[in-house]
Amino acid sequence: MPTNLLLLLLFGVRVLAICPPMCTCSRGHRAVDCSARGLAILPDSLQHNIHFLNLSHNRLQDLDGLLNHFDHLRTLDISYNHLHHLPVGLPRALWDIRASGNYIRQLEKNNTAYHWNLQNLDLSHNLLERVVLINNTLSNLQSLNLSHNKFWTVPTNMPYNLEMVDLSHNYLLQILPDSLDRLPKLSRFYLHANRFTSLSNGVFSRLDGLQLLTLGDNPWACEDEENINHLLTWMQQTPAKILGCPCYTRPTCGEAHLATRRTWHSAAFTEPPLGGDAHHPGHRAPMQVVTSGYLSKSAQLNVGQYPSTVNTSGPGEQVLIVVGGFLTSTPDSLSTQSSTTIRTRSTKKVLPGSAHSTSHQIHICSFETTILSLLCTAVILCAC
Predict the structure, then answer these.
(1) φ, ψ for residue 338 (rounded to 5)?
(2) CATH says 18-143 is which class?
(3) pTM, whole model, 2 decimals?
(4) Residue 115: CB partners within 8 Å, gap ≥ 6?
(5) What is the widest separation between alpha-carbon atoms in the chain?
(6) How many Å apart are CA 274 and CA 339, to the nearest integer?
(7) Which residues sit opposite 122 in a β-bridge?
(8) Domain ranges for the chain
């Protein structure tokens, strides 16, 4: 009897020790929340069969080899700590890794080489400049968030089952040819708030499953028609919805089934519809939110950079718009004319009344000169 009592007491102590005192546990102690506790080391007494572990908003700097024995762990949240790399030896059973808000500079292929079960990977708000992904090992990865990092080019060799990729708020300048050709299931692609000026021809043509693409808040070189026209043509033909259309005043384009009139312009930021009202040139349309949390601060603060319509015309005619204080004409449909030609023609059309006024003044001056000449001749004859 004393032996049984002792075993019972020991078992009771073990049960009480399953949940670390600085954490909260639920779901039979298999969901453990240790977030925002000021932790610098991994808590003791974590049960080996936990399914969910939240270590976010702490001061953790190194978790290498400390989590590999949690064979049943499905979700790991290590966001907003002081990590400089993704921990080595993470459990292979993981479905969801959340590691945003750290100081991770690169992702090596060995960091994710054995995560066949991984479905979601969030590495946003880090210092990433390059990632090496092996699409054969990440065969179940569906969501990849790399926003708010320091990428200059879109990562290549991304896992082929991806459905969502967020690369917004980086320094992206280009997408290498063929780097998106093996992503047939990609439906949501976020590329807004980068540094794109143009994109190579056919870069999105193999994304058969694309439903949503964001391109706003990029410095598109709309005056360089030779390099931008193929992108604008693709946007007219794609069934996908595009938010922040390059070189258009409309915030949304694409969706080939929609027959809408679009006006081409060269504003630096293109996502909010800030074009003036056609019937009231002095009135600006109200700000519209494109997506929740998507409208850039720069777009809101640079209202003066957007064009405002000052005159409208019928089909096939040109529309005059104001860009940075200058009048330019824009074709109702895309053309192959150079921007210099367009501006030259608009200069001839802008102020026809001025030319008439000038010729009238010249005519008056000529008449006055003739009268003076006759008077001078009369005076000379009288003197003689």
Answers:
(1) -75, 155
(2) alpha beta
(3) 0.66
(4) 90, 92, 94, 97, 137, 138
(5) 157
(6) 22
(7) 98, 145
(8) 18-143
